Amino acid sequence: MHQTKATQQFKLKYTVLTLSLMMTSLSYAQTQSSADDAVALAPIYVQSVGDTTNIDEALKEQKATDQISSVVHADAIGQLPDDNAAEALQRIPGVSTERDQGEGRFVTVRGLGADLNSVSINGTLVPAPESDRRGVALDVLPSGLIQSLSVVKTLTPDMDANALGGSVQIQSMSAFDHEGLFYTGNVEGSYDDKREKYSPKLSGAISNRFSIGDGEDNFGVAAAVSYQKRKFGSDNVETGGSWDGDALEETSMRQYDITRERLGVGLNMDYRPTENSQYYLRTLFSRFKDNEVRNAVKTEFSDALLPSETGAAEITRALKAREETQEIQSYVLGTKHEFDVWTIEGQVGYSEASEKNPKGIAAANYVGEFDNVGYNSRSKPVIFGGSDIYDASQYTLDKIEQESSLAKDKEKNIKFDLTRHFSLANYPAELKFGAKLSQREKTNNTDVWVYKDFDSSNGLSGTGHYDLAKFGPVISTGAVYNYLSGLNADDYLDMEESTINDFKTNEDIRSAYFMQTIDFDKLRLIAGLRYEDTHFKTQGYEFKDEQISTTKFKNNYDHWLPGVLVRYELSDDAVLRAGWTNTVVRPTFAQSSPGIYIDTSDLEAEFGNPNLKPLEAQNFDFGVERYFGRASVISFNAFYKDIKNFIYNTDIAGTGEWADYSEAITYKNGEKAKLYGVELAYSQKFDQLPAPWNGLLIGLNTTFSRSEANISGTKDGVYSQRKINLPNQSKLVGNALLGWENEKFGFKVSANYKSSYLYELSAIDTPEKDIYSDEQLFVDFSSHFNIRPNLQLRFDVQNITNEHYYTYMGRQQLNAQYEEYGPTFKLSLNFHNF
């Protein structure tokens, strides 16, 4: 029922419309042969369609690259109401986002999740603030700090090979991006309809060049700052898949009130003493503070119930209140020199990410026992009952849990590249080679305190503002802290929870490469080889029958990674690209965790696997693009990925040393997986039509993909296998944009669609309990009015249709999670001097 007829019709019509418009435009393109207009031919970044100049600039940059990639510039990022880098990237072919509370966070490229892609800022790796992940949550980076974004989908040998889907590359501003003094600013106010809250946002950038010594305009300074404090919320009901057939065992209604504060600062300096030499410093600091207050009503039925049935239930009113701060800082110092036929480049980089959760309330539980409690809908299983379930005096404080954690991820690197330009049989050629040393250290420390044996109902009062059902009283954060004020925290430290997730991991990667490029008239051939040697060591703790001991592991391996890329100019306005590349991605820090938990009385165990092999992929790409007018392009890209050592979560009880155990949860390598698909993109600015139709803008892109992977495991002594789709891989991802603009006014309506995908695997023998994420269709509106040439007023609306988030277990009607956010309205004033 959540895949509505309207959404199904959109999906069908969107696919047909995309294909028909592409065929029509290709026919039209045959009549367009203006070489002056042919500025670029790489896959278009559809979000930038609203500003024709911005499209042309981005396409020029894309055409200059040898890889299949997509680029967007800072001005284009502001054309639609995207708050962060993840939301800005979701509109290009093959890219989608994992959302949290309705905001884009992690980026998926060609169906491969964020942990299988890499992110770099100014050429240096961005580490992950979260303790368990490699993938970087790009909502940490405000869009106001970004000069350009690109997604490179075919890696050349001179690039780090740590991306199976693509490499997200972020560039901050340089003073040499503009002539003379440049400045821009933005003042924005937004309104969240769900919580009826107003939020401010400010951003600005300035740069200028100065003359030093005998040079002229040879030293540049650029600075940017962005600040946002957004207040919003969501209403949620989730079961986590607690279904026994069609009957429900437990459900939880959750009310979120959230304040997210983003602060970003960048300062860059460039010195170019001669035309052939340059020095640069790139710095970036970003802080993301997430203040979350969550009141929940958790209901556990004594016996599993069908809809409309009633029975006895334990209801827990629970509070979670914490302020989590993520920070990313990056510093890059580099130089480049050209000597006749030689070019020398060097760079030193340091980046650090952290996630700090001071002593917040992880849980405060008030418990009561009730009769005649039930629910009406499997898809939105909110509860109903007598007046007693809404009476605060019927609940008693049972437990308070506090948690404090600090995760840090540091990466430092040094690299150099040397290029020799020469002629080979009268054809221009260059040989490039270089080396890089990267040292990474990831640590996590968590402390948990559990307080029990309370006997009071104080702290519950008022009522929740929950739109899905009657909610009842909520818990006061201040009252919970009052209960703890006179207690000695050391007496309540939970040693198991405070130990098992602590670790320190070091990962050193030494790499070297060579790459030969030859231009045969219209054909460019790139062939090369990259070598990466990885030294991995980690230490943590084993918690066995209340006893704690230290664990240590090492895992060293190396890879030879050849690659061949071809770029051929079919004509002045058409380009063909193809590539065979090899990439490798290391396991996540959760998968390679050194922590081990063993309970010999219940015969249960859970542990990471530091001896996992990294994922390896052979990637085959083919693409062709045709440009047929100003800001008008059509493109086709096909890809195939052959993946080895796919990693998944499994239960190995009944095998080896776990032969007598009922449960032994860990990670293991699968044999093979494959991913293949096509990306189609089309955009057109209809300049050739008579006014007012010459202001019309259309943009479409679609990615069709399929995946297969084999997993295996043993349950109750029986070995079995089954095929799955890769997690997070949607079979259809697409964007559509319709807009109109002239010199004074413009508007755009954009739609972002993502079909359903596998979200979470269950046990090997229970595929019916796999969790799936339902399809989503987000529709946004943006408009602008140019008050003066350098002053613009904007009005934007995010999530016009109040799209929700829904996951289900096995069958679509069995709720795992339902969450809705409502629309957000924005009014902003932009000014600049260019």
TrEMBL record:
Its main location: membrane. CDD domains: ligand_gated_channel. One of its GO terms (cellular component) is cell outer membrane. It is found in: Cell outer membrane. Residues 1-29 form the signal peptide. It comes from the Bacteria. Residues 373-800 form the TonB-dependent receptor-like beta-barrel domain. Keywords: Cell outer membrane, Membrane, Receptor, Signal, TonB box, Transmembrane, Transmembrane beta strand, Transport. PROSITE patterns: TONB_DEPENDENT_REC_3. It is a multi-pass membrane protein. The keyword Transmembrane applies. Residues 62-166 form the TonB-dependent receptor plug domain. Pfam families: Plug (PF07715), TonB_dep_Rec_b-barrel (PF00593). Belongs to the TonB-dependent receptor family. This is TonB-dependent receptor.
